[in-house]
Specification:
Length: 290
């Protein structure tokens, strides 16, 4: 099964049409590099100019309507493009299209309609017009019940976006929680969400640290349990000290306001992606000098 995401990637690399890219991937059993060669051999690929480009800049945004909300991240190559009105409008149009849908995966989002074309084709057209590699990295449609509350927060103009859902409480409390997640970078909602293998690895590291500090194996083992609790308080949202009142944790703050944190999604633009090494001035110089 050839995914829309793979077709989009191949289009970005070669500039070939959607159907040609799909055919190339089908002929090459989904092998991306082989598909690039296939298109070049057929004389269909314009050039593989974008193949080594890195799109790790961009914007994240959140759209809400009643009991539905969308959080998404769209990437580009340079921060300069994030100020481009057409790029911002593209993100808005994609966000609104997802909000009207019931898309459950990125492939389903890429297949949605925007002004008579798929989101996939819409992004490819904007890539050609704006002149940078653009990509929809991730998008999530979230629904809540009537008694639940969305908390949405954008930081640094869309470099970080956080969407939380609370049971009870109100929007002000929910926004406080979203701001907490933006500032303190929790990886998980609660300690039960931390994978067992992550905890085991952390315990091994902490035990080794204690032994290196000169502690016996027995003492090191006891120290590990205490330090694991510290790990939870640093990496799990509801167990973190609340930034507005360090005497209580986030869970207690929300509980004191009649609520409970149900979910959290935090997008930081470009996190985990390879970054560009050259600066924008160098990039312009490269283009001028051919």
């Amino acid at each position: 099964m050839i995914s829309a995401k793979d077709v989009n990637e191949l289009r970005g690399k070669t500039g070939a049409g959607m159907m040609d890219c799909k055919k190339a991937l089908t002929e090459c059993n989904g092998d991306m590099e082989a598909a690039v060669d296939w298109l070049r051999e057929k004389g269909i690929a314009k050039a593989a100019k974008k193949a080594d480009r890195i799109a790790a800049e961009g914007l994240a945004n959140i759209y809400t309507d009643g009991n539905k909300a969308v959080i998404l991240e769209v990437n580009c190559e340079t921060d300069f493009v994030t100020k481009n009105a057409e790029f911002v409008e593209m993100i808005d149009n994609i966000g609104k299209a997802v909000l009207k849908s019931d898309a459950k995966s990125l492939d389903e989002v890429l297949a949605l309609d925007v002004d008579g074309e798929t989101v996939n084709d819409y992004i490819v057209a904007k890539t050609a017009k704006i002149g940078e590699k653009l990509s929809l990295r991730r998008a999530k449609l979230v629904t809540k019940k009537d008694g639940e509350t969305f908390g949405a927060y954008l930081h640094m103009g869309g470099k970080i976006a956080v969407l939380v859902v609370l049971e009870g409480a109100n929007e002000e409390v929910a926004k406080d929680v979203a701001m907490q997640a933006a500032a303190m970078r929790p990886e998980y909602l609660k300690k039960e969400d931390v994978p067992a293998e992550v905890i085991e690895k952390e315990k091994e590291i902490l035990k080794e640290q204690a032994i290196n500090e000169g502690k016996s194996a027995d003492i090191a083992e006891k120290m590990v349990n205490g330090r694991i609790q510290k790990y939870y308080k640093e990496n799990c949202l509801i167990h973190q000290a609340f930034v507005k009142d360090g005497n209580i944790d986030v869970e207690t703050y929300v509980k004191n306001n009649g609520g409970k944190v149900l979910s959290m999604i935090r997008y930081e633009v470009g996190e985990g992606m390879e970054k560009r090494n050259e600066n924008f001035a160098e990039e312009v110089a490269k283009q001028i000098n051919g």
